[in-house]
Design a protein that fits this description.
Distance between the termini: 48 Å
Largest sheet: 10 strands, mixed
Strand order of the largest sheet: 3-4-5-6-9-10-11-12-13-14
CATH architecture of the largest domain: Alpha-Beta Barrel
Oligomer: single chain
Bound molecules: iron/sulfur cluster
Radius of gyration: 21 Å
Number of domains: 2
CATH topology of the largest domain: TIM Barrel
Helix content: 25-40%
Order of helices and strands: EHHHEEEEEEEHEHEHEHHEHEHEH
Length: 392
């Protein structure tokens, strides 16, 4: 069994009191300074980060090798409390587990656990909603409500591991849930610095994947720092034809497919690494031979593999799933050009189209969202400043 018996939906620890320092929101440097300022014992810093980031303990009371006096002293000034409240856990027929988290301000996000036998992957959210407005994605129709904090991103891992029979089984992470990670770069990179750091969560860098629509200014920065900022990259492409991509992914109007191609061609990938391109297939929109040939041309000088994801319709979705023959023909055009191409099952891992469904269901139940969202990308005047955002 993947999950422990789940007795209730209560918080694992109380919300952080607002006047206390929330340890999980601090950068590595600030965390060290904070702990050392409260206790000069040289081992204290390692002891506390070990409880937080490796043993998933978010309550001083359960840090059993720290004296009561020391714990009380820390608890006066700071808190390791969870930033999430588990509201709902739903297991699909294929074993995929969707978890709905409540945030302190009443909003909700979700994470998805995907058990593929030899590996267990957690799909993380980085924003509440998303302003990229990809038309095949349920989250995209919500608009952006707010960014998640670093602690809220990291806590999805900690709290999910606490649900597992065997927390060590969680080996892979994908930042592919609600939100565009590169639209929340500070908190995304802040959390990644704990996730892949051997002193903290120590996830294998190749098993951590950031998925993006191709936010070019952030990818440019990343290309300069990629040797130190090491994780895998998935590009959500949708189409290699500019006009079609703009129709289904409005972000393409700010960051066109040709500019993306040029950037990826010169991106300094590590030896042996390659980009993954996810391509959600929509019947009659991007599943033709012409589209496949455009994709072959796009990938000509880019180290890549392609995941074809037949669209999984959600209520009210403007697209339908392509026929199996179209998907196979599309794949053949790519494989005939020596491009590694896989047809993926449509589950929480493979498709942003599947993310946001639990949150949407919860919103429907509540019949309103507590904070009005900014509009998706089509209406940029309501969105926070985006570089190159003219024309929306
Ligand atoms: S696919 Fe990703 S980037 Fe696009 S709208 Fe959905 S969450 Fe946002």
């Amino acid at each position: 069994m993947l999950l422990k018996h789940l007795p209730d939906n209560s918080l694992s620890a109380p919300w952080a009191e607002s006047d206390k320092i929330a340890l999980l929101d601090l950068s590595e440097k600030k965390l060290e300074e904070c702990i050392k300022s409260l206790d000069s014992a040289p081992y204290r810093y390692n002891q506390i980060i070990n409880w937080l980031y490796r043993k998933d303990v978010l309550d001083f009371a359960f840090m059993t090798d720290i004296s009561k006096d020391t714990k009380n002293h820390f608890a006066q000034f700071c808190t390791p409390s969870s930033r999430l409240k588990r509201l709902e856990v739903v297991t699909d027929n294929d074993g995929t587990v969707k978890i709905l988290w409540g945030l302190k301000d009443g909003l909700t996000v979700e994470s998805v656990l995907i058990d593929e036998g030899e590996r267990l992957t957690l799909c993380l959210s980085t924003q509440v909603g998303c302003r990229m407005g990809c038309r095949f994605c349920r989250t995209g129709s919500m608009g952006l409500i707010r960014n998640l904090s670093q602690g809220e991103i990291v806590c999805q891992i900690i709290e999910s591991r606490r649900l597992l029979e065997n927390p060590k089984k969680l080996t892979n992470l994908v930042l592919m849930g609600m939100g565009e990670p590169l639209d929340n770069p500070d908190n995304t990179f802040g959390s990644l610095s704990f996730i892949t750091n051997p002193k903290f969560m120590a996830f294998n860098q190749r098993r951590v994947t950031l998925s993006t629509v191709g936010v070019i200014p952030q990818l440019e920065k990343l290309s300069q720092a990629f040797k130190s900022q090491s994780f895998s990259l998935t590009i959500s492409l949708g189409s290699a034809v500019d006009s079609v991509r703009s129709q289904i992914m409005p972000s393409n109007r700010a960051w066109p497919v040709d500019d993306l191609k040029k950037l990826l061609e010169r991106f300094p990938l590590r030896p042996g690494w390659r980009f993954t391109f996810s391509y959600v297939m929509l019947e009659g929109v991007n599943d033709s031979k012409k589209q496949a040939l455009a994709l072959v041309k796009f990938l000509a000088h880019i180290k890549s593999k392609v995941n074809l994801i037949p669209f999984n319709p959600w209520p009210g979705a403007p697209f339908t799933r392509p026929k199996a023959e179209s998907v196979l023909s599309f794949q053949k055009v790519l494989t005939d050009s020596n491009i590694s191409t896989f047809i993926r099952r449509t589950n929480g891992l493979d498709s942003n189209a599947a993310c946001g469904l639990l949150v949407a269901k919860n919103q429907d139940r509540q019949n309103s969202s507590p904070t009005p969202p900014s509009q998706p990308f089509e209406n940029p005047s309501d969105s926070p400043a985006l570089p190159d955002s003219q024309g929306y």
